[in-house]
Amino acid sequence: RTPASLRLSLYLSKFSLTPYCENLQDEGSNRYPAWLTDGRLANVQADIRIDTLSTPGITIDNFATLLEADRRQIRLSSLTAMLYGGHTEGSITLSNANPPALQLQQHFQNVQINPLLQNLLGLNNLSGKGDAVVDLNSKGRNRAEWLNSLGGQVSIKVKNGSLAGVDLAKILQN
Fold first, then answer.
1. DSSP output for the chain
2. pLDDT at 80 (0 to 100)
3. Which residues of the chain have pLDDT under 50?
4. CA 24, 55, 52, 139: dihedral to nearest 10 degrees?
5. How many whole angstroms separate alpha carbon 158 and alpha carbon 170?
6. CA spacing 20 to 30 A to 47: which of 53, 64, 116, 168?
7. Cα distance between residue 29 and residue 42, in whole Å
8. How far is CA 42 from CA 4, 8, 37, 56, in A?
9. Quick check: 45 and 65 in contact, CB under 8 A?
10. Pairing of strands 101-112, 86-95
């Protein structure tokens, strides 16, 4: 018997990832979906569009991606979105390894730095618009393991930026 394949298009006006992100702190369980590894489903391919996608701390608009999933990996390719006045494109891959492995490759353009850092890290002293190239990888069974094994590169370029409380012009004159 041949396992079933699933192809679909999904459109949502709003979706929140917050409840799912909170569960990432649970210890020790495999995060790879069992329904992809038990032999019932060979692969899934889905065109996904979400007008407003919320996560803990960040709201993303016009999220679109091609999801491809099988027993080896879940990949969000051609991922595009609008956030903080800017745009991002790239991919995210979750591999069914032991422990599960994650790779994030994104290119951000013209993102407003201050609200992003405020919402993500509670920082509000840097402003301007930024471009970033992110290539990160990690592996683990829970949030602590993912953070401890985090590696890769991030390149950031800030345009018309200012750092609150620091007079860069005066520092550069001296």
1. -PPEEEEEEEEEEEEE-HHHHHGGGSSS---S-HHHHSSSEEEEEEEEEEEEEEETTEEEEEEEEEEEEESSEEEEEEEEEEETTEEEEEEEEEE--SS-EEEEEEEEEEEEHHHHHHHHHS--SEEEEEEEEEEEEEE-SSHHHHHHT-EEEEEEEEEEEEETT--HHHHHH-
2. 97
3. none
4. -50
5. 19
6. 116
7. 23
8. 6, 14, 8, 32
9. no
10. antiparallel
Instruction: Specify the pLDDT at position 22.
Output: 67
Task: Report the distance separating Cα 79 and Cα 48, nearest Å.
Answer: 9
Q: Determine the Cα–Cα distance for residues 53 and 60; give it in Å rounded to an integer.
A: 5
Closest CA to 88 of 56, 114, 115, 111: 111
Strand 126-139 with 151-163, pairing:
antiparallel
Predicted confidence (pLDDT) per residue in 82-115, tens digit:
999 999 999 999 998 888 899 999 999 999 988 8
CA distance 154 to 137: 11
The pTM for the full model equals 0.81
Q: Is the CB of residue 60 less than 8 Å from the CB of residue 81?
A: yes
Select from 95, 71, 102 the least CA-distant residue to 5: 71
